[in-house]
Amino acid sequence: MSNPDRIRVAIVEDDESLRRIFGGWMQRSPGMEFVGEFPDAESAILGLGSVRPEVVLVDIQLPGLDGIECVRRLKGTLGSTQFMMLTVYEDADRIFKALEAGAAGYLLKRTTQEELIDAIVELRKGGSPMTSAIARKVVQSFQHPAPVGVSAEMAHLSPREREILGLLAQGYLYKEIASDLGISVPTVNAHIRNMYEKLQVHSRAQAVARYMKAG
Amino acid sequence: MFSQSTSRVPSRGRVMRSWMAARRCWVRGLTLAGFCFSGAVLAGEVRVESVTVDGRAMERAVVEAGRSDGLELPAGSHRISFRIGPVDDAARGLRLRHRLQGIEPGWQESGGEMRLSLLALSATGDVVGLFESAMRGESDGWNGTLEDSPFVQRRESAPLPAGVRLLRIVFSSGTWDARDGASHQALGAAGLDDCRMWMTNGAGQRVDLLPNTAFEEGADLDGPGATPTGLVRGGMGPKIARVVRVREAGRNHVLALVDDNPRSGGEWRREVLLPEDLKSGGALWMEWKEAYSVGAAGGRQVDYEWVPPGDYVFGVQGVTPLGERIEAEAVMGLHVPELWWRSPAAWMTGLVVVGAGLAASVRGWTRRRMRRELEGLEQERALERERARIARDLHDDLGTSLTQIMHLSRSVVSTVPSGSPAAQELEQIHRTSQAMTRALEEIVWAVDPKHDSLDGIANYVAGFAQEFLGATSISCRLNLPVDLPAHPVPAEVRHHLFLAFKEALNNAVRHSGAKCVTVSMEVASDGFILEVRDDGRGWTETLGAVGLEPRRRSGQGVANLRARLERIGGRVEIEGASGAGTVVRMRVPLVLDEGGIPARVEGTS
């Protein structure tokens, strides 16, 4: 029997031992319901639809289709699901690509049990982690014109978003940004999630544009 | 391989002998019809116009005198680009395909593709899902014409997107691409048959979605305006979308795209409306049979990112727009000798084990030793590829295993009595593996050539400073330019600079009593500056006069810092006044030579 208060979580990780370790942590967490584990993107793409998870941990590097492509394909079909990437080390380029594909955050595989559980809960509550290195990549990305087919409101960052992004790039913590700008931390999170959404729209528009043109 | 000759330094002798032996070995050559190297290799209608190796155009000088049977390249792995094209205007309509025997088993075609795509649309017309299968080159068993070629079975599946009402299948040639703003000039013929689509609903039942799967129903199927039931023709060149009668047993009409016009495209479309009460959680399946030969006309560049030592034959072949082979093929031989230091397997094992340190020192070592003898040779490229491989291996294998040890040692500790010797030892294993995991991250970063840039440094420095200072009560401020010039920074420089940076950051945290540490980066024409500034007591006070009577620990740190910067040809400036904080400014020179390769930074070690 599923409990609506518990977060439905799943994992896509090819290394069996890590899958068991992380799966075990989530299984033992009282706030979570562990609904599925998959060794590769292909099985996750077919199987995740029927288990309707709210948060999926996805290894960024998988055999066959990689984790980034896995998220890209699932993002459109599992509307309300959040994807959190798992990565061995902090490679800003790949993490940024995953965020563009639709991921909402990432975790290093050396993360502790407490950090992992906290990060999932935080993500479900609307949290959106963004480090300084990722903020720099977002700034770089918005310096290019938006692709054809992106609506005016999604094409650019709002002044407030630019302000927050600037502070993030300068190493400010969320609470420092909140107090500097006189807003709450959840508001900071909402702005960041909005920025991620714009990034995703841009990356998706590039892929879709050629079909719409032909129609 | 290593023959008898004497030399002052054994290893240097080995370099020369091995290289000379490799050159002598290249006498067997390759007997190639129609080959001549006078700036271009041609045979009838298609040719190799030029060859570029590691970014440098090959000149005749590299072909050894009296031998026109091949091109001898410097030792080691290379990035090689061939410019291929038609010989004259008459051949301009030909499709070109290429092959590097020794690397590729079959002919490759680039530049044009046809696609079978599936778009999932919502009730409001938004695209909620997209799947595409590209047809490029030849399908298995292609026989020169669509009529005579076997059809190959394909099957794909995807989750059924939420909110989908309409599925649109598009079989198209020459679609305009928004990504590069260019038209894909596809030429060729492609056929589709037995095209089935079904979904499995939440209850696991199969629901077929397409009628007329074999395209045998329809109006005037053997006439010029043939249209199978349920399909719509589209595109700029509607004559491209056709129905073709094939000869394969059991197959009659197939849906086809026959495109011999590079500036036009055509397509077949079909749409399926899905029931409104669709439950989520189902999957969509598509199965079809296909045969195709698709490519593009015109000259183009063919790039091989990594060609390791070996013997190769590069060939270009002309094909008619619709996929018939003609007797037009140009070939050229290539010989790439083995790098001397690569041959003994033991070397590689050593390289992997010692990782970054050795990679850096081998780099310096090979540079110094080989410089005179092998001036102009591009070992750097080969080394770069080795580094990428080492980084990948360290990351994939060691990284994952270490993470496992780290997590397992933590989880098993709860099964032994707390405070027992076993518990303490497990805790020790946990801490050690945790430290190793972090050390490995640093090594992987330093070794991986994809971070060989100012931007790579900025990202890593930002991440490290945030994590390091995040564990303290000191605020972290970063002042790193968003747009840094795309300037390569050698791994050796990054390695030493990063260790120096860690030292500076560590000193600021341990000794300054600062509230805030600011990390800045600034680029000038002759290099860049990485600065760590704190608002603490000032190092001069903690250290006494810097360089005169430093306290042992911090003094050692400062000496290390200086040594690190000197190793990479840079220098460090430390400014500090009592109570006014400390600034550690690390200056790193970087100079571009005319080839766009950074000038070598001279080591003093």
Descriptive report:
The complex is a heterodimer of chains A (215) and B (605). Helix content of chain A is 55%, strand content 13%. Chain A has helices at 16-28, 41-51, 67-75, 92-101, 113-124, 132-142, 152-155, 159-169, 174-181, 185-214, and strands spanning 7-12, 32-38, 55-59, 82-87, 105-108. In chain A, strands 2-1-3-4-5 form a five-stranded parallel beta sheet, with helices on both faces. In chain A, strand 3 (55-59), helix 3 and strand 4 (82-87) form a beta-alpha-beta unit. In chain A, helix 6 packs across helix 8 (159-169). The model of chain A has no long low-confidence stretch (mean pLDDT 88). Chain B has 605 residues and is of the alpha+beta class. Chain B has four domains: 25-109 and 299-336, Immunoglobulin-like (Sandwich); 114-295, no CATH class; 344-451, no CATH class; 452-605, Heat Shock Protein 90 (2-Layer Sandwich). Chain B is built from nine helices and 30 strands. Chain B has helices at residues 10-25, 345-354, 356-370, 379-412, 421-447, 454-470, 491-511, 539-543, 552-567; strands at 41-43, 46-53, 56-57, 71-72, 78-86, 95-101, 114-122, 127-135, 137-138, 152-159, 164-173, 176-177, 182-183, 187-200, 206-208, 218-219, 227-228, 232-234, 241-245, 253-259, 266-273, 283-295, 300-307, 310-319, 325-336, 475-479, 516-524, 527-534, 571-576, 582-589. Residues 1-42, 60-68, 176-182, 341-351, 544-553 and 593-605 of chain B have low confidence and may be disordered. Chains A and B meet through helix 1, helix 2, helix 6 and helix 10 of A and strand 7, strand 8, strand 10, strand 12 and helix 4 of B.
